[in-house]
């Protein structure tokens, strides 16, 4: 029977947590939740460490017992599953995660063990780098470790995928090509006479298909054509109508938003054709950003631009001749953040809304990472807040409603932060041009959110204006009009 020394006092810790009472003050309740979350994160790290150690000792024991090498390791995950009261399949997956935290993702493992990131974020890094060979995986881990404590789960996954794509662009293209070849649709019976039709599609095609359903459903709602149905019901009905060929009005145009550098699009720049990209320019084979999905290989991005059916076929030269709309997104040459525009409108729509979506990428509530539903006035319009980029923030519908509750406040920070007030990650906003909002909750807790750099933005330590290069190059290489 295990004693306290052997278990490290964990039984007392469990008992203490079980008997924990909520604090009397709401500020202290929130502090309890912060500490309990750190404890949960650290516990996940400890489970991974102990699981990995258990596997090593069990394999050693099986070797001593002369278990055939092809069978060594069998039953280890099953024991872990019983101890943790989870399925063996889940235990096997968790054991693979534990191995990775020990061998190749040591930095991520340390952050998890010290409670600085949660298990889902660590799992995301594991999942997005699992295909890399060990040396490259350790390299990506080293690149990510400084940023992970500031990222939510989806942002951590995107950062890991972006770093993995940059570390092995050729492998990423091969894997994406294979995945596209595996596209399929299948049928799953469900209870109560229902079913699921599941499509496994390349990201741009899936985004376009789902976007068309959303847009046409929204149009039907404005005209009252949905006849009392909910939005999901109307979308499901439209999905069936489109597949079965039932007559219906032509769908509204769907825009797939893709962000990539000009040297990624064309493979070179006016000043550096045929040579490696210098500092301040994006890697021609590095990841691009597909709105609604995240980082994708540059080869796929060029195929989207060229409208190539194979999705990976066109070379930069073929993309050179593509007929596509290009919309300028101006970024700060030092920080890479999207810079402001100044239309004065009541509603954030058109160009202003588009810039806010590109700048913020996901909901600006720290760690929320939900898709942007609303371009919201930080300083309320009813209280005199202007309708401009600086006073706008992309948020999810939930936060747009929550911040109107008593005790909540949001403001845009300009200049150095106030003394003694840190952001959600304990750091100040970055130097240079920045868009940082500060959220205060009813308990008095404050959290900060700084807009991320524009996806695939090229930054320059010299601060030279990149727009002249972009405009001159696109004018020279593409016979396109600038979309308004």
From TrEMBL:
Transmembrane segments: none annotated. Residues 264-290, 416-467 are annotated as: Disordered. Residues 351-401 form the HNH nuclease domain. Coiled coil: none annotated. It holds the Pfam family DUF222. Residues 438-448 have a biased composition (Polar residues). InterPro entries: DUF222, HNH_nuc. This is Uncharacterized protein DUF222.
